[in-house]
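Interim report, section 4.2 (structural modelling).
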Amino acid sequence: MPTELLVGTKKGLFVLRGTPGQGRAFDVAARAFPGDVVEFAMRDPRTGRYFAAHTSGFYGPRLMFADDPTREWTQARGPAFPEDGDTSLERIWMIQPGEVEGLLYAGVAPAALFVSTDDGETWSLNEPLWKERQAGDWQPGAGGLALHSICPWPGDPRRLAVGVSAAGVWITEDGGETWRTGYQGLVPGYIPEEAREGTNALCVHNMHRAPMRPERLFMQFHGNVYRSDDAGSSWQEIRAGLPSGFGFPLVVDPSDPDSAYVIPLVADVDRVTPDGAMRVYETRDAGASWTEHGHGLPGEEVYLTVLRQAFGATGEGATMQLYFGATSGDVFGSADAGTTWFSVHERLAPVTSVRVA
Amino acid sequence: MAVVTLRAPLSQRAGDTSRHELPGETVGEVLRELERRHPPIAGWILDERGRVRQHVNVFVNAERVREDAIVGSTDVVQVLPSISGG
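Predicted structure of the assembly:
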């Protein structure tokens, strides 16, 4: 059965189709929004509706949706900040289906959560979290002040955790009416030790929940990797065994609450793959140990960067498919949960996001 | 009424029309009226705050202006992308 990938790049959306294991690159089935940055694209598995967030260098950011990504797209009404405010939308970082029919979330910059209850056609700002942002001293990371990770609780629409760069983890248990932080155990090594106590300058790079054990979350942080077993309230370092604690993307196997995949980079001052080799790291014991995967990936004189949303997956267990793209424009895939890898496509534009449709 | 001229892709979002006669006393008012008549262009020239986007240039009779510039009934308002981006 062919696999369809939605690859957001700095020069448009590429819809790739192919069958893993056939020894040939995926075909470009369509290219949409040419010339614009496509920061994120995904397909809502509940409705089959496709979403793409793109930004024109001239005309700003917007969210589009379509039933067929190779044909016409429709512009959503929002996300947009209130017209009587002093904030304008800079970028849409991600779209996440919720736990109620028609419910979707959008994470944007400057850091805010938007909600849709009509399958993504119209969007409204979550005011309580926005008030927290206005009241707090939220500082941007290098990529801006971004709400980029949204983790629903399977079966319970009242519970949600979001990750903000660089303002930590925010948790709601009442459907977004009130929010609290989840900071305990996170160590911001990029600020002086004497200034760390009580700071909210916590640069979350990515966060995912383990669906089979929803109180467990995995986080790629700015310089470390963490696990939470109490729904994000506190965090435990799990970077031992990785070549670096720095990186951006993270994926979990939905069938295994002890699993996570990361793609480390050297450090914040040198954001390329360590040791000149493209490697993916997998844990199946909740971070107690990590297995290096490089079979089929370029292993010599390779200095790639894989961005926050540029790692996606589908399926579960031993046949889980994994795909990631680099800013070099190369896309790689695995059809055996990371054990072996193949080239999906070479020399696209710099890749910003990868999701399996 | 002032005349607003657009190029693609903006003209495509405004009824596939590049020339629009619109009422309004300021550039912002004229462009908001354009949005009201052609909703697909909303958010493309003005952001949520009603400000001209950073990388869009608006000229009134060859003078580059912002949203608060006064517009006369015989003025021509040209909307162009700036020479930025990549």
